[in-house]
Description:
The protein is of the alpha/beta class. It has helices at 15-26, 40-50, 66-75, 91-100, 112-123, 131-146, 159-169, 174-181, 185-199, 204-213, and strands at 6-11, 31-37, 54-57, 81-86, 104-107, 128-129.
Amino acid sequence: MTGDTITLLIADDHPVVRDGLRGMFTGEPGFEVLAEAADGAEAVRLAESLRPDVVLMDLRMPGTDGVTAITRMAERGLPARILVLTTYDTDSDVLPAIEAGATGYLLKDALQDELFRAVRAAARGESVLSPSVAARLMDRMRTAAARPAGPRGDEPLSPRELEVLGLVARGSTNREAAARLFISEATVKTHLLHIYGKLGVNDRAAAVAAAFNRGLLQPGASS
């Protein structure tokens, strides 16, 4: 941030939406819109060159979609916080976006003041979720926690989940793992919940033990 001003990049394929968001934030003290992007690829390029504090990211865009753009920004170590702003709150939209590294997830029916608060929170690195998205994630957490312990092995861990588990096995905290992987701490927690469910365990230690027993992690692997 420049002083108390939060810089923004708006990524949405609809010009009317971009114009509306630009007008909204331009008229509010403490915000500066640096640029607009019409697709994910352009958003990545602009985020890399302009280094905004927060990117307002739509998900379903032609060409490079929002989740792909979020993933590429994380891979390049860009410091911008990503706040998804979309009309969709299905599992197929929410979970990939959060796993890719989004700091927050809001729907486009959010009130103006709610959006301002969310951007300020995202700039501080705080997770922001719309009520419907938060409820959906809580349901998934309860489902994962209710699964009985024991080997399941019917669903493989993703490469990102293996990265998270490897860091946990080497003693990293959630915060340290998030910094190492350039994702939010909330995203690390989401990955861990998925890992617990897939391995049929209920905590970090059991997950690491199960991973070693199944050969998913190797003793003495370098960090």
